[in-house]
Amino acid sequence: MFYFGVDYYPEQWPEERWAVDADLMQAAGLNVVRLAEFGWSRMEPEEGRYEFDWLDRAIQILSERGIQVILGTPTASPPAWLMSQSPDLFRVQDDGLRATYGNRREYCPNHPHYHEVSRRIVLQMAEHYARHASVIGWQIDNEFGQRCYCPVCQEAFQTWLRRRYSSLDTLNQKWGTTFWSHAYSNWSQIPLPLKTGGSPNPGLALDFARFASDSYVAFQKMQVDILRQKCPGHFVTHNFMGFDFDQIDYFELAKDLDFVSLNHYPRDQWKFRAAVNPSRVALQHDTMRGLKQRNYWMMEQQAGSGGWEILSVAPRPGELRLWAYQSIAHGADGILFFRWRTARYGTEQLWNGLLDYDARPTRRYGEIHKMGAELRKIGERLIGSTLKPEAAILLSYDSRFAFQIQPNHPRFSYPAHLHQVYDAFYRQHIPVDVIAPGTDLSAYKLVVAPALHVLTDSTAREMESFVKNGGVLLLTQRSGVKDEANAVVDRPLPGLVAGLAGAIVEEVDSLADGMSNSLEFCLPQLGSVQPEVGILCEVLRPTGAGVVATYTRDYYAGRPAITQNRFGKGQVVYVGAVGGEELYGPLAAWLSQLAGIHPLFQAPAGVEVSERWQQDRRYLFVLNHTDLAQKIPLDGQYTNLLDGGSRLQGTLTLPPNDLAILTAADEYPY
After folding, report:
1. What is the end-to-end Cα distance of the chain in Å, rounded?
2. pLDDT of 49-71, one tens digit each?
3. Does domain 391-595 have CATH number 3.40.50.880?
4. Which of 101-110, 182-191, 518-527, 638-647 is least confident?
5. Please, are residues 256 and 301 in contact by the beta-carbon 8 Å criterion?
6. DSSP β-bridge partners for residue 482
7. What is the structure's pLDDT at 273?
8. Superfamily (CATH H level) for 607-664
9. Does residue 300 carry a catalytic annotation?
């Protein structure tokens, strides 16, 4: 079954309304809902007294209409009776101030009492619903969040460090605490990197980021273990916040889950933009698929204008359906829209659902109704289908955390840089996996490692083996600068991979606002455009590599900026400058040719092409993200699964914000 549903809050609406809502859901083809992730105070109105009758009745109404249920553990938003017990239950922010009651995720993720009461509510829910025929799975908490800097976390951090380093002598050596006379003689002396302490030791700060991430991993595992024991037939997931969220190592958080889920809002109040960047959305999806290298769910797909204090731009006609199919195109096996009905109370009054405040079905509901009818016809063909990218991008949370501590440049952003490189492949319809350092690289022909700042011996060896066996590797500026302890290496950059790159960095120019340089390509296949570069420019000295591009200006004019090194059966390209589309576009095309990777399709700008495979059957998703009709030349005969199985040849015409799902006409007729 392809799961298609909504996030529903029956506790926020009169009970006599529940059956009407369920009827409308059934009519729209919805077959699953998420419930209760913010229902703790209804399920446990006072400590130790549990009330599930209301939730039982809501589930029964849904079940009678063939709608199954995912239950959320409610620990993201604790009840007032709990948080009033002690002020030290509240999370402390990096400015030293404690959060106060009134929002959500105010809790300290390491507090023993919070763990205990969380364990009790999860256990009660698990025992109550373990054998309920309509409950199919669980979502742990909701959007695990920010770091806590409280005394409880400081003590837990010191214990975490003791396990990691065993001795203070080792910690002092790794962190280089002789600098500024910061050597520690007792574990209890080690502080937290609060803003009030100024610029912290980079080793301490990186380890704290790792510890804070591990804290949520441990809190989640406590809940997962209960559900695994009590509800062995149910899946367990958590709703992640995509590539953009940077406080938790999502690869680690994903390990204990059956699959990951994504919450994503292309048009919300925090991205108040006139246009949606579809490649940025695609990166969110590919990152989620890469966390476990398997398909995922959309637990919160946008259903209307997002907003807490500000009402964001309304989704244009067709966009909700287009975004949902874009999720499927990148590996989503379940789609749930947030939310069913716009809230009348609370912080999210401006966050629109499929129904308005007055419970009236909207244009948005009609769009989802249409999609529900489509998925009833084709959903079974998509379940179990997978993506098969031949290229991968390494996402290093250690490097991401290190750049949070020392950005290297006021205008350098690790996630923005990674997206720029990703976007170059996206525009050429070359699928990409987003993977962690340490992942087996043998399935790929091309691996891109943008700004791999923190580099371990094992990752360097894996990349060396990958290239030696015929792979193509792209490294970019500021790679190999730091070791695991966030200390600068004592060798020429790019450190552990200098030999692999066949070049070293002689010096780095950090360019201020108004300063720039440009490159001249030495290879004709890269074209005659001289792309502008800036922010950080590394001057390279080949030690065996050939020169691909040189700088055109300033005191290092004519010096190498990009090199190419043959290593074993493969090749390594090192890019020492930060550029934009004019740089990464030609490089992506050239690198793909070197690796023997071909674009999926030729399509005009603004049209995205992706594919899923059901064994040897290919489903080609062609999505028009523009507000104009687009004509796409076809390279053969196809069947469009979304319009009743029409045969297509020659040209596909897509209206604005519309899509087609194509399969070869002679391979799998509709």
Report:
1. 19
2. 999 999 999 999 999 999 999 99
3. yes
4. 638-647
5. no
6. 454, 488
7. 83
8. Golgi alpha-mannosidase II (2.60.40.1180)
9. yes
φ/ψ (deg, to 5) at 647:
-90, 135
Active site residue 143: yes
Catalytic residue among 44, 106, 300, 611: 300
Cβ–Cβ < 8 Å for 296, 262: yes
Question: How many whole angstroms separate alpha carbon 461 and alpha carbon 468?
Answer: 10
Evaluate whether 517 touches 527 at the Cβ level (below 8 Å): no
Q: Where are the domains of the chain?
A: 3-147+219-382, 391-595, 607-664
Distance, in Å, from the CA atom of 434 to the CA atom of 333, rounded to the nearest integer, reads 18
Nearest Cα residue to 114 out of 149, 87, 145? 87
CATH class entry, domain 3-147+219-382: alpha beta
Distance (Å, rounded) from C-alpha 251 to C-alpha 266? 23
Q: Which runs of E-coded beta strand occur in 59-100?
A: 68-72
- Give the residue-averaged pLDDT of 518-547: 97
Nearest CA-CA partner of 409 in 216, 543, 586, 577: 577
Catalytic residue (choose from 143, 348, 390, 484) = 143
pLDDT digit string (tens) for 108-156? 999 999 999 999 999 999 999 999 999 999 999 999 999 999 999 999 9
In angstroms, the CA 276 to CA 624 distance is: 12
d(CA 415, CA 659) in angstroms, rounded, equals 29
pLDDT for position 665: 85
- Strands 517-521 and 532-542, bridge-based pairing: antiparallel
At residue 112, the pLDDT reads: 98
Token pair recorded at residue 611: 């594919």
Rounded to whole angstroms, the Cα distance separating 487 from 508 reads 18
